[in-house]
Amino acid sequence: MSAILQPLAAVLDDDPDVVVTLSLQLHALGMEARCHSRPEALLAELPILGPRLLIVDLELGRSNDGIEVLRRLAECRYAGAVLLLSGVESKIIHIAERVGRTLGLHMLDPLGKPYRLTDLRRRLEDISPRVVSERQSGDVLRSQEEVDLALTRDEFIVHYQPQFELASNRLSGVEALVRWQHPEMGLLQPGQFLPLMTPDQCQALTRRVASLALRDADRWSEAGLSLSMAINVTPAELMNAELLSLMDNGRRGLSHRAPIVLEITESDSMDDELLGGEVAARLRLHGVEVSVDDFGVGFSSLSRLQLLPISELKIDRSFVRDIHEASQDAAIVEAVALLGQRLGIRVVAEGVESLDRLPLLRTYGCTHVQGFALGRPMPAEQIPVIDRMLPA
């Protein structure tokens, strides 16, 4: 079994000058690069190369475009990271990014052309050079039986991303994020295994995450740290009447009851709004709140606010990222924050990757923030010892 000392990146761009520059920059950042000018060549070699990163231009000649490439990557169940690097207008880039996320791809924050090396380095800081086997962690897991075995062995764990309240500048809650501690491939991100899982497996995973998260929240509370706990569920799970008993059973026997928030993704479909509203209402009666994640990227935002007892909106990171540079994004953030104020619900700005975003988010009326600049997802034991105040 051979070893690769540098993570492999694949570049899809038909501009030779960009290809040369990218190759040199990736090499400087510790990544070996394989470059392609046509999608067909890349897709043909994809199973062989198994790259941990794809850098894709959206403009690939008259007969090809990067969005179609994203769809074909999803069909191939590509599980590595995807970085869009393009000179088209930012609105088109953001649309393509959201398409990729909706397809289940692991999308990094995109870059426009021209870009700075420091910006590229920041995008790739999660893809660190290390020795990996031929079966790299970016490879697609092909066996649902392997998932069943992982559930039996309790290989799925939970990391927590801190959330801060802007009014007090204090740590106020966490979001529970599932990881797979794979015995051979190490720590896997959700995009590497969720697309493979069946509905029954997803439901079993939700039970596992909820159980771990509630017990961790109880331990923190006993140590004097009361934090809200956000747990992601699908609309299908929200419409499942068993969700109520799952939450009640998960909290039974715990000495403390931290606030629990169930997050549904706004862009996901919900076939029966009435049933979803009924379950959400019953959850609320039992002390469990509902949050709409990635708010602003779907097409049913206002109707859901009308039909569901929503306690929180989480503004999608694609709007937060460029609020200083893009007036349209800033206007959307301000409008959602105002909407939250009028409805009396929390508004969380996700994807805060620079502290200079905080004054503007506070001015607009966002109530809470989370992002890499404030804290990355971390194991439960690190939460009680992190700095509980926003960085100055």
From TrEMBL:
PROSITE patterns documented for this protein: EAL, RESPONSE_REGULATORY
Location of 4-aspartylphosphate modifications: D57
InterPro entries: CheY-like_superfamily (IPR011006), Cyclic-di-GMP_PDE-like (IPR050706), EAL_dom (IPR001633), EAL_sf (IPR035919), Sig_transdc_resp-reg_receiver (IPR001789)
UniProt keywords, alphabetically: Phosphoprotein
Every Response regulatory domain range: 8-128
Domain EAL: 140-391
Gene3D superfamilies found in the cross-reference section: 3.40.50.2300, EAL domain (3.20.20.450)
Protein name, per record: Diguanylate phosphodiesterase
